[in-house]
Structure formats: structure tokens, C-alpha cells
Write the C-alpha cells for this entry.
Amino acid sequence: MIEFNRFVLENGLRVLVHEDNSTPMAVVNVLYDVGARDENPEKTGFAHLFEHLMFGGSKNIPDYDEPLQRAGGENNAYTTEDVTNYYCQLPAKNIETAFWLESDRMLSLAFSKKSLEVQRKVVCEEFKEHYINKPYGDMWHKMRALAYQVHPYRWLTIGKELSHIEQVQLDEVKAFFFKHYRPVNAILVVAGNVTTEQVKQLAEKWFGDIPMGEKYVRHLPAEPTQTAPRSLEVTADVPLHAIMKTWHMAGRLEQGYYVADLITEILGGGSSSRLYQTLVKEQQLFSDIQCYQLGSIDPGLVTIQGKLVKGVTMQQAEAGINAVIQQIVEQPVSETELTKIKNRTESVIVFEDMALMNRAGSLAYYELLGNAQLMNEELSRFQAVTTADLQQGAAAIFNPNNVNTLYYYSQHL
Amino acid sequence: MINRKQQPHITDPIHLPLQLPAAETFTLSNGVQVYAVKAGAQEVVQLELVFDAGNWYEQKNIVAASTNFLLKNGTRHKTAFQLNEQVEMYGAYLNRACYFERASVSLHSLSKFLPQLLPLLVEVLSESVFPEEEIHIYRQNMQQRLSVNLKKPDFVANRLIDAYVFGEQHPYGKYSHLSDYDALTRNEILQFFQQYYQNGQCTVFIAGNLPNNIEALLNHSIGQLPLNGTALVKPEYSIQPAAQKKYFVLNDDNGVQAAIRLALPFPNRHHPDFLKAQLLNTVLGGYFGSRLMSNIREDKGYTYGIHSYIQAFQQQSVWMVSTEAGRQVSEAAIEETYKEMLKLQQQPIDEAELSLVKNFLIGTLLGDIDGPFHIIERWKNYVLNNMPMNYFDITVQNIKSTTAEELQQLAKKYLNPENFYELQVV
């Protein structure tokens, strides 16, 4: 049970406080309700590039990192398709420095030309490092474009192509900031050796006078129900054939989300999971295989991907996957297997909550979903799933019209 | 009105109290030493058994790593599947890892399930059988994994640079080839298992919310194993560094980035320069505000990240600079790195930067000893490397007292570009 207090400033900034006096540290986490899904399709990668620019100096503070490090703190940030999250950890005694830094960059960035020029290059190198200069690095680019036709999940957070990042202009950066980085679109979480009273006073002092801004309301096109299977064949300079299959699933707040997550656990969680045991160990069709779901807020994807053992054909590999899927659709999961994945899920949650930083990040995320208390209800939602739910869920997800397949051939085989 | 230009008052972290919580220690009936940290609000436990079973002890390449990897793949009574299913039934994780001198087997679980899991751990350590079929699957899959990794410039660079510094025959410098997997036999694995695990040298580290009867629990399980009998003879290896210092490897014609590694042989943890060099390394490339990051990422935009670190090994360490930079700018990135080294030789670090780095390091240490798993990690490091038991205090004291002059002297002594091995892999 993660305890917290919550209050809202007049400018709409939501503030959550999680007191933990067993640590000398404090975490300040600021989440902005904007991610890659909010981008213009012609200017993808923008939200993530923008995250880099948040470290390029703000209105009154030329450098974000230096004063934080001087106070004994460290920080980082990440952008997903749904949100942008900034967090720092420092000795609780010096917590006011974090308020000073975070409030100034919420007030206004410096919008430095030099920072934009440099970070465009840095992000292009990041793009190359993770998606170009790596075998199989473009699989998700291709899969997203195949599985989503209208929803902005059809591109990756890093962006569709390098040129989108290279072309970003300073006036677009400013417009994006004043549209999305306003108190009314942000959530502040403070965790660690602090008191709620102290946080109230500091939040008022540093964030209270920042103009509220306009509440951003998103109108994203919903992905229509897929009515026929889709596939794409690619040949690349990789040593082994690979396959990736995805199926549309429920959104983050639906009961179906919990069902889908447990299904991926049964199929791909751990060395006793079905896909690993059947296809890697018994049939030896794959040298590795994974099953997971994306965890996105809007309806995401259940994914199975693996690399084929040399000599195995794409048809054999796919038939192997299909047989495992057919089994989970046709036969109920045993109570023992359900208990196993529920225990695994409980364990994941408990281990995750050990780190102060994770607790702060989760509180912000669940607040964004609508209610921070959801964080404490997660486990019971998983525990409520029955074997009948699983079978029904599997049938819906693994509907043959709902599948997208990427056949990724090695040019050397 | 608040003054937004002025940083609020801070307490310099070097003045904050900083103490590593103690570890309890006791000896099991078979002589195995246990270090335990009982702390934390969550009902979880981490148990790690460390064996003298690294690749230092193998007669043939990859035998140590393969034995360690295959520990979970079947015992006299259970198949790999049954074993994994039981562990996962409790929501637990049974992991293993193999290093140069040491190898470990670790268990993460909810505290309530520890008593049920210990017998499984004992079974793995006493009755593993390494079935031929499991070895066959392992061989095939590892060869495939290696063939994919060999397409990654960073993977190739990491292997080669260690080979240049230590020599390919040395445990720190050797690496796996596809043919090593073909040559691997079950008999070699069984022998290695018997000598270095079943009858091996073991130390136990446990942390978390431990049951009150933890000593008895461990005594009735791990304490019954035939461990820590005859002391091991540690083989000796001489380091044979390459004569050539500069390398360029073309791994992929179409590569858009170069993996860059610059490496300098450096003394081990017991050398008097070691701790101060950690401080100098932080200034050079050990944190986000470092000289290398500020220049090569934040000013020039040549890379997504550039880091320096001292890889502390028992016999000899290596001081490494590592980055992936655009192919067109990789030479420039190397040149700028050397410039930063020379700057550290030519000018003392000014007071503002030095105090910042000290505060940053102390703040990080404070965060690093937060929670039982982090605390035991420190103790493990000290115990396994024969460091004095007040090493944490020595480290803290050292950060506080090091001067800019000392760091400049160290830079002159070590950060000489001509002494670095230099490798680019495209």
C-alpha cells in the first residue's frame, strides 16, 4: 500500500506527496501529459526531441544540471508514446533546488538556438545508435506502420525518419512548449523524506505563480477494428530470419488490459512459459522468442517475436506460433498456471515499488490515468481475472482478422 | 517576490552524515560465510551465492560460462521445465551470472516463499545433471545469438579492446568464438560443476526483509552442502598487451556510426591512486556534466553519449572511454577526447567544478546506499575484493580531501593519450 496526499494549486497543477522517512533522499517527479501520440504526422519525434531541449536552459537558469549536481542530485527523463516524464533524486535537505529548477523550466524555457542545433544532432545519433546501426533495429518501425493505420501509434517515439528531426524550427518548439508544458497539463510528485506541509509551501512558492495555460484536450483518431490480416515481407542484412506478430488489444483502463497482460505472461513470461517451452525447447523452431504487450494508454498490441533456428522455414515457425495460440484459445488455462502468473505479477509489483523513484513515477502515471489510488488497486485487478476471462480474452485478441505479421528474412540464408 | 535567478540555499552534501549500515555476519556449519543486511519495508529477499567459478578457472574457453548458464537446466529429479515452473510458481527469479574470477547464483523472492525455495536452490547446487539435449539446444541458440551480436559494432569493440589490453589468452581478454560451442562437451561441464560448485568455494550475501530464523534456514539448506572444503589453487596468468596501439575495424560497410573505445591499463583497487583516480574519472567522463559529455555531446552533438569509467578487476583494471559517434565525426570525437585529457594535465580543476563533483559523488553515494539490496552490494564488493571493512568511510574521506593539485598530478601520470589503446569499429 503506497500512501500519498494530494492537492491542486490554483493554476491547476496537481501535486502528490508520498512521505517516506526511512530514506535521506527525496524524489521530485514532473510528468507532462504529452507524448509522441500528440505529434503532427509530418513532424514525428518532436516530443522526444523537446525532452532534450528541456535541459538546454530555462528563463532564469542557464544550466539545469549543474546546480542540481552541486546539490548532490541526479536526474533523467523519458518520453513515451503517451507521456513525458522528468525526475530527479537528491538529498532531501536540498529539495528546494529541485523546486527552483523544475518550476523555472515550467515557467519558460530559454529557447536557445544553440541548444536546438546541438540536440537535433544528438537525437539523430540516438536514432542511428538504436534503430539504424543495429541488426533488426527497424522491426518496430515497420510493425507500427503495419498495425496502425490512423492512430498516431503508427510511428515510434524516436520519430518516423531522421529528416523530421533535422527540420524542427525554433518557433515550433515555442508553440509546443506553451501548448503542452503548462501547469494544468502537468503532475508534480514529491516522494521521500519530506512532509506534505513542506511540499505545499514549496509548491505554492515556486509553482504558484506560473500561468495556468489551457487544458490540452486530445482528439486522436481511434484505430478502426481490423477486419483482415495484414503482413509485410522484408529482406535485410541480418544473420537469421525473424518473425514478429501483433494483435490489437484493450486500452489501459479496460478490464481487457489486465486479461491481455496475463495472457502475455502465460505465453512468454519466464523459462516455463508456453512459447519458450514448446518452440525453443521441445520443437526447437526458435533460438529465442518473446511475448509482451506495449503497456500503452490507448489500445496497444500483444506481440510475439522471435528468431528462427537456422534451417527452419518461415512457414514452420509461424505454424508453431499459431498452434500455441490455438491452444490458449481452445483450452482453458489451468488454475495452477493462473496462480503461477498471478504470483509472478505480485512479485513484479512488490519489487518495482522498492525504489523511491519508481513509487514517485507510478503515482504520477496513475494520477494521469485518472486516479493515483489505482496504483494500490492494480494487484487486485489482476487477481480478479478468471480462467474464463482468459479464454474469452484470448479468443478476442487472437481473432485471425486481428493479426499483423512481419516476415523478416535474412538475405544470407 | 522570489528570486528565480538565485539557487536556494543548499547544504553541501559533503557535510551530510553518510554511513553504510552494517552487515551482520555468521558462519554456516560447513564453513560458508554469510553476510546479511536486514532492512527494507517490502516483504522481499535477495539471496546470492558467489562461487570461485569464473572463467579464470576453466581449462578451455566458455566452460565456466556454460556451466553457470546451464545450472537451471535439469537435476537428477527435475527437468529444466519442472525446475523453472516451481521457481516461477512462487513468483521468484533464479538467476546466474559468470564473471572473470567469480560466478554467482541468485534468488529474488517474496520473503514468505524463501523456505520453500531454498530446497530447490540446494537441489540445483548438488544435483544438476546437464542433460545432453539441453547442451545441444544451448549450443545452437548461443551460436545464433553470437552471430547476431557480431553484427553490432559496440559488441565487437568491447571484445577486441579487452583482448588488446590483456591478451587473448588472459581470462580478462579472451572471448567466445562460434567454434568454442562446437567443441564444448558435457564431460567438461560436469567436471567443472563438481569441482567449482558442488565442492566449491562459496560466500553468501542475503538482504531484505529476512525471516527471524534466517540463520537456521540457511544452515539447514546451504549449510549442508559439501562446500569450502579444500582451498582452491588460483592459476596464474600473465598479461600480454598488444604492441600495436591503434586499430580500425570495418565490420559493416553500411555502418553509420563508429563504436569508439579508448583504453588504458590501470592498477587494481589496492593501489594508492585508485580512489583519487575515481574522482578524476568523474570529472573526465563519469557523469552527465563531465568534460567529455559537455564538449562532445552538449557542445558538438557528435554522439548520444560518451562515458569514461574504471573497470576494476582483481589483477589489473582498465580505464576506458566509450562512445558511439557518427561515422563522419568519429575522428573528431577522439581528438576532442584527447584534448580534454591534456587540459586536465595542463590546468588544475577550479574550485567550483571540484566542489560540484564532490557534492555530486556524495549525493550519489547517499542514494546508492538506500535500501537493503544496495547496501549488500557494497559489502559484497568489499568482501570479495579483500578491501578493509571501513572502506566506505575511506572512500567518503577520500572524496572530501582530494585536492585539485593531486588530480592534476594524476592526470599527468595517467591521462597521456599516447598510452591509450584506440579502437574504432564501424
Summary: Residues 97 and 210 of chain A are 17 Å apart (CA to CA). The first helix of chain A runs from residue 46 to 53. Chain A has two domains: 5-207, 230-410.
